[in-house]
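Hey,
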Amino acid sequence: MKIPSQFWQNVRGIILVATAFWFCAETGAAFTVTSSADDGGANTLRSAIAGAALDPNIQFALPSGSTIMLTKGELLISMNMTITGPGATNLSIVNTNGRVFHIPTGVVTISGLTMTGHYKAPNGANGTIGHLDGYPGTGAFGGGILDESPDLLVVSNCFMINCWANGGNGGDAFNGESCSGPSLGNGGDGGYASGGALCHTTGDLILQGCTFLNNDVWAGNGGMGHDGGKGGNAGVVNEPLFANGAGAGGGAVEVEYGSATFSLINCTFFYNYASGGHGGQGGNGWTNCIGAPSAGGAGGASGTASGGAIYVIQGCNNCGNIACRGLDSCTVYYNWCQPHNGGPGGAGFANGAPGAAGNPGTAYGCGLFFENVGCLKMDNTIIAGSWASGGFVPVGPDVYVAGGGNITSLGWNFIGDATGSGGHWAITDTTFALTILPAANLLSPSVTPR
């Protein structure tokens, strides 16, 4: 008898989940971190990760309330590893100049930690006399964790708080002046930004019992044009949905590519946001020596702001895979998007025409944005109270589905405003416009937008 391929898909998913938890409990002796320093010395977390070939299980024996402040850069994990913290309220790992973890490969399990990371991508260089245009900024991926592993990442019972990923700003055009002719240069485009707390690019992902609070992504701003040159667009990336100014996606989490296992279970997302970045200012008209009229350059487009909490580019490869649970028993509340107006056009010279302002950004799915293809399951989940700042009205306020994405509801979901979600809801779901509650006063004094 031929066994259906669906059976093997389910078996693979079960094995992946079981492997993660077996690996945590059964793989050799543990390295115990007893120092909160980050000098690479004995008994530090950095030395534990560097020596993980001998002890792939890492645990901690530090005073409650300790903080490991990373001063030597992000922690690079390139092999199978389990990091078991003492509880998210007992130990924090903070990097104010980069990510906390970068995972190129390996089956990795992280639990019981609070993580805060700040990743700023490099800005583009300004133009030169030999290259008048400004150079583009670099994209930023994952403020707290960047997971590029083709294997499995499990993060459980963790807090990811105040993480951010900022795209690099585009460089300004060369600003040299000449009477012999204009030095017309365009501003460089700003870089895209994704996954303020966590950016997952490939492989399998399980997030369970985690809280994501006040994380954000901010697209790089466009650079300034010169002598009638155009301002750079904000947050540019090769995304088919947004041809001009892709912006930023996933204030807390971005999942870029489809996987066999993609599960967010019993997680909370509150007050995370995505900011699309500002378009660059168009260059003023050429100040020529003969007083001839010269037009100003157009302003750059502002980037879109999508998925204030969660941005999923591609869902599960197989919706029938029982290990791929999508959003299960999650609360996604009061997350927001921050689009901006386009860059101003440059002023004309000697009655020359001013440049046109750049296109403004748009807010999409400020709770959840689901793009492209694949399946995204949703079960017993609340997504509500999402909003956009600056007078912008979001398209699909709480949930927006673009491209060929397909939300598969398993029922008992509460969606505050399902406009733009594509109507993929079950009879047991509740979908209606929900008035935003004054939840901001629930934030602690230390939790404020940047």
